[in-house]
Amino acid sequence: MSLSEDLYLSYLNNDDLLPLLAGKTVVITGTTTGLGFALARTAIVKRASLVLLLNRTSERSAASERELRKYVYEGGEATTVIRSINCDLTSFNSVKNASTAVNDAVKPYHGLDVLCLNAGIMACDDIRTADGFDVQMQTNMLSHFLLAASVYPSVKQAAEHRGEARIVSHSSSAREAVKTLEEKYFTQCPEGSLGGSEASFISQIMFGKGGPWVRYSHSKLANAAFAMALHHKLQAIRSKIKSLACEPGYSVTSLQNTKHFTGAMNWAPKQSASDGSLNAAMACFSLDAESGDFYAPAKIATGKPTKVVVGGVRQKTGWIGGTDRGTCDPDNQKLVWDACEKALGIKFDV
How confident is the model over 64-74, as a mean pLDDT? Predict the structure, then answer.
């Protein structure tokens, strides 16, 4: 069944909601399909000067770049430079190389205006990357922390040159399934030691048994808590850089193509990837977006983007009593920052 992108188009065609981006540089991880593809499309249609697509090199990523190039031409003239950069988030070395390529690419443009940490995997087996970490936590959080730290000088340059820049972290409603981050998910450990791969969706979400969904939820809470931790650090030095978060509700994407997605959520309202991408688009590009804001669908799973956290303070909207106690918990924010630095052996100084 094809889902409508009417909401997406209503925002895309309204420059008051999503302004033109001439002169801006945009980096997005994970643009081959789904939310990342739609966000890249938005940046291109809105005439960003440079859009860098960070994906693993493959025929699929090449095909998506060809598709995105169809949106480049306005009045017969190319308005956006598009480049693909190889970036395998399961390899820290690949992320380091991609970071160098990003810094080099944005240098002629006086920095990086928008970094969207979008790519992610969901509900995978309890396996490890070549670096020795849980494949979900490394892909969804650790490598994005490394990327953000590595290109931060370019983000800072854009903020100084054009008055602001943004780092946007893509989370998920799954962040609400856990309340407290645990350091064990950020450490090198044997395969199968973080809950295994066999527990059912219900036993994990309802009864707290470890498994693929619990690990995914930790990685998505980590994304949100990182965004708020960075926000507070930036505010403390009165930086012109904004740190924001977003989540897409229940958007139908290739992310659901996992053996552990058993159809347990098929009953829920759902929306197209294009409509779901609007939360990221608002965080990345809206003139009303401020540091510490978190965009999510107004109807929880679907609907217009709305702010569930404003300036680092959660709003009592949506779920009964509001969402994001875990996101706004200072202990979670400290843990994700410290655990990422320890795992990567780096210091991310803002």
Answer: 91
